[in-house]
Design brief:
Lipocalin, 58% strand, eight-stranded antiparallel beta barrel, mainly beta, 6% helix
Length: 225
């Protein structure tokens, strides 16, 4: 009886799935990268030279399961607006989700922009434009862990997907630097690095610099809640 109780305790310690804040951050599988930040997620599959697919949206916990609610899905747009339950287990720096193993890339640090953001406004010729409501069905979201970023443009009503790009990033001395690993619209941009000035004002991220085409930009992103 004592041996059986000991083995049962060991089983609970090492094999019980855990769903907690340890999920926050970026994870890598053989196919691509998963970012779990705040209540939102994005997974993207790509190679060094080719974007393959992406899907994501919001997530929540339910017992020992995670519920994925799709807002975009390039593999199957009919899944937009639907939910999927998945079992998950963390063992050390490994995450197992429905038979797929992920290794941890970061835990939400050290980048200062960890979170989910929606494009909300821009400044042109020194003048602020009309703000975009966070409830607008057409969304441009940026989701960041501590070292990874991805932007996605999509429409939750029409289920249309407009594009995405992402890779690694750093924040240092007021400079935000993106290193592009994938770009759905133009693979030639992979490998490029872009540096911007950034500042957090309340729940807004002010993003200023030049686009990959050399055009000046001043964007405002609002933290998604």
């Amino acid at each position: 009886m004592v041996i059986e109780l000991f083995l049962f305790t060991i089983n609970l310690l090492f094999f019980t799935p855990t769903i907690n804040d340890d999920l926050q951050g970026a994870w890598k599988s053989n196919d691509g990268v998963l970012i779990l930040s705040d209540n939102y997620f994005a997974f993207t599959a790509y190679t060094d030279s080719e974007f393959k697919y992406t899907y994501g949206g919001s997530w929540s916990k339910e017992d020992n399961m995670i519920v994925l609610s799709y807002e975009f899905n390039t593999l199957d747009s009919s899944k937009v607006g639907t939910n999927k339950k998945a079992s998950m287990m963390i063992k050390g720096n490994s995450l197992h989700m429905n038979g797929t193993e992920f290794s941890r890339l970061d835990d939400g640090n050290p980048g200062k922009l960890n979170g989910s953001w929606l494009f909300s406004n821009r400044v042109r010729n020194g003048e602020m434009g009309a703000p975009r409501s966070v409830d607008n069905p057409r969304k441009t979201m940026k989701i960041l862990s501590g070292t990874r970023f991805q932007w996605i443009a999509y429409n939750v009503d029409t289920k249309e997907f407009m594009g995405t790009g992402g890779g690694t990033y750093t924040t240092k001395d007021g400079k935000y630097t993106e290193n592009i690993d994938f770009f759905s619209r133009d693979n030639s941009r992979v490998g490029a690095s872009l540096e911007f000035e950034f500042e957090i004002k309340g729940d807004d991220w002010h993003h200023k610099g030049f686009s990959s085409r050399g055009d000046p930009i001043y964007e405002i992103w609002s933290r998604r809640k």
